[in-house]
Inverse folding.
C-alpha cells in the first residue's frame, strides 16, 4: 500500500470518527435528558433549540464552507480564497449578532422561543459560525488529527458539563454540600433545560479559544470578484441545506404548533431511536463517497456502484429489523423516562425513511460525477415542500404519525426522482427490483414484529434469523464471490 493510500485511509478513519462520534454521543445524551426532565413539554424546548440551531447554522455560512473547498482547490490554494471566505463569514456573523440581539424580543417572539434560550442560542451560533472556515482550512491542509481533536474536545466538554450540571451538582445539593450560588432550583425543568444550553455555550466558547492561534494567522480582506463567484456557488448549497433542515426538523415544529409541546417532546425523544439509522447512513457515506470518485475512471465502475447500493440496502434492511428486535433494550438504554414512550410507534417508519435517505445519498453519484449539483437543491426543495404540505394537511387528521409518514414520503420520493433523473443523465443498471424487495420486506417485517410481537424476544429474534437466512439464499452467488468460498457444501 502506497504512502498516499495509507494517508487517505487514515484521514478517512479520523474524519469518520469526528463525524460519527458526536452523533452517537448526542443520541446517548437523550437518556440523561429524558431522565432528569420529567416533563416532555419542557424537553420540547431542547428539541426546538437545536432545530433553530440547524437552520441558523446553514443560513449564517451562506454555503461558504463548500465554496471555500471548491475555490481553494481550484485556484491552487490561493490565500485570497481563505482571506475572502473567513472575512465574509466573520463580518456577516458580527452583523447578524448585532441584528439578532437588537431585535431579540421581536425575533424570539416570532420563533416562539424563551428569550433566555434565544440569547444563549445566538451566542453559540456566532461562535460556531466563526470556526467554520478554520475547520475547513484544517481539512484542506490535511490536518485531520487536529480537526478531529477539536471536534471531539467540543463534544466531550458538552457531555462533561451536562454531567456536572444535571447529575453531579444536584447530587451534592441533596447531600447538603454547598454548591455555587448560580445553582438555584434543580426541581425546575426550565433550569435543567438552561443548563443543557449553557453546557453547549461553554463547549463552543472553549472550542473558539482553541482556534485563536490559527485565527491569528488569518488576514482580513475581501476580493469582491472572488466573493461574487463564491456566493454564486455557495448560495444554492445554502438553499439545499435549508431544505434538508426542513426535511429533518420541521415535523417537530409542526407537532408543537398543531398538537402540543408535550407531544412534540415525546416525538423528538423517540425520534432519536429511529435516527440510529442515520448513523449507519453517515458511516457508509464517509467510506462510499471517496470510493465513488476514486473509481469513476474504472471501466467497471457502474457495476461497482450498482453492487454497492444493493449491499447498502441489504445491510440497511438487516439494521432495521435488528433495531426492532432489540428495541425494548434500546429503549431502556436511550430513554430515561417511560412518559416519553407514547410515540414509540414512529420508530419503524423513521427507520425506513432513513434507509431511503441513504439510498438517495448513494444515488447522488450521478449528479456529482456529471457536475449537475443543482439537482441536489431541486431534490431537497422537493422534499421540503412534501414535508411541509404533508404535515400541515395530515397532522390535524391523524396526529403525530403524520410527521413520521411525511419524513418517509419526502425521502422515498427524493430517492425515486433522483433514480429516474440519474437513469437519464448517467445510466447505471441498478438491480432495482431486488433493492425494492429488501426495502418492502424489511419494512413489513419490522412493522409486524413491532405491532404484534413487541417485547417477545424469542419470536423477534427468530424473525431476524429467518430474514438473514432468506438473504443468504437469495444472494448466494454474490456472497460466494465476496467470501471467496462456497456458501453450501
Amino acid at each position: 500500500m502506497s504512502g498516499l493510500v495509507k494517508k487517505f485511509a487514515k484521514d478517512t478513519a479520523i474524519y469518520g470518527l469526528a463525524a460519527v462520534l458526536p452523533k452517537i454521543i448526542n443520541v446517548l445524551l437523550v437518556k440523561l435528558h429524558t431522565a432528569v426532565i420529567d416533563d416532555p413539554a419542557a424537553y420540547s424546548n431542547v428539541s426546538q433549540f437545536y432545530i433553530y440551531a440547524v437552520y441558523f447554522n446553514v443560513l449564517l455560512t451562506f454555503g461558504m464552507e463548500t465554496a471555500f473547498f471548491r475555490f481553494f482547490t481550484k485556484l491552487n490554494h490561493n490565500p485570497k480564497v481563505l482571506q475572502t471566505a473567513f472575512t465574509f463569514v466573520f463580518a456577516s456573523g458580527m452583523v447578524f449578532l448585532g441584528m439578532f440581539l437588537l431585535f431579540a424580543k421581536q425575533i424570539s417572539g416570532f420563533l416562539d422561543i424563551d428569550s433566555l434560550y434565544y440569547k444563549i442560542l445566538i451566542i453559540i451560533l456566532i461562535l460556531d459560525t466563526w470556526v467554520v472556515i478554520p475547520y475547513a482550512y484544517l481539512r484542506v491542509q490535511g490536518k485531520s488529527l487536529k480537526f478531529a481533536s477539536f471536534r471531539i474536545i467540543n463534544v466531550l466538554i458538552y457531555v462533561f458539563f451536562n454531567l456536572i450540571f444535571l447529575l453531579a451538582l444536584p447530587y451534592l445539593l441533596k447531600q447538603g454540600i454547598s454548591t455555587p450560588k448560580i445553582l438555584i432550583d434543580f426541581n425546575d425543568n426550565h433550569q435543567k433545560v438552561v443548563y443543557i444550553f449553557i453546557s453547549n455555550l461553554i463547549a463552543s466558547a472553549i472550542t473558539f479559544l482553541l482556534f485563536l492561534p490559527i485565527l491569528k494567522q488569518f488576514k482580513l480582506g475581501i476580493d469582491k470578484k472572488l466573493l461574487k463567484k463564491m456566493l454564486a456557488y455557495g448560495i444554492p448549497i445554502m438553499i439545499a441545506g435549508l431544505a434538508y433542515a426542513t426535511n429533518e426538523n420541521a415535523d417537530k415544529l409542526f407537532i408543537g404548533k398543531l398538537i402540543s409541546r408535550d407531544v412534540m417532546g415525546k416525538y423528538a425523544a423517540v425520534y432519536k431511536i429511529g435516527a440510529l439509522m442515520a448513523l449507519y447512513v453517515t458511516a457508509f457515506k464517509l467510506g462510499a463517497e471517496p470510493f465513488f470518485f476514486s473509481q469513476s475512471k474504472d471501466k467497471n465502475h457502474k457495476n461497482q456502484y450498482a453492487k454497492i447500493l444493493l449491499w447498502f440496502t441489504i445491510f440497511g434492511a438487516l439494521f432495521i429489523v435488528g433495531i426492532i428486535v432489540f428495541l425494548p433494550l434500546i429503549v431502556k438504554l436511550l430513554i430515561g423516562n417511560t412518559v416519553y414512550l407514547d410515540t414509540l410507534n414512529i420508530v419503524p417508519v423513521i427507520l425506513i425513511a432513513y434507509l431511503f435517505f441513504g439510498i438517495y445519498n448513494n444515488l447522488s453519484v450521478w449528479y456529482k460525477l456529471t457536475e449537475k449539483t443543482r439537482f441536489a437543491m431541486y431534490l431537497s426543495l422537493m422534499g421540503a415542500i412534501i414535508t411541509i404540505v404533508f404535515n400541515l394537511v395530515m397532522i390535524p387528521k391523524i396526529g403525530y404519525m403524520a410527521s413520521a409518514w411525511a419524513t418517509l414520503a419526502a425521502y422515498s420520493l427524493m430517492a425515486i426522482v433522483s433514480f429516474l433523473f440519474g437513469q437519464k443523465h448517467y445510466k447505471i443498471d441498478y438491480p432495482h427490483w431486488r433493492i425494492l424487495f429488501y426495502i418492502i420486506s424489511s419494512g413489513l417485517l419490522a412493522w409486524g414484529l413491532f405491532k404484534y410481537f413487541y417485547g417477545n424476544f424469542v419470536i423477534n429474534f427468530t424473525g431476524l434469523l429467518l430474514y438473514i437466512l432468506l438473504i443468504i439464499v437469495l444472494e448466494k452467488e454474490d456472497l460466494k464471490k465476496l467470501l471467496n468460498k462456497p456458501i453450501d457444501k
User: Anything to note?
Assistant: Residues 18-222 form one domain. DSSP finds 21 helices and no strands in the chain.
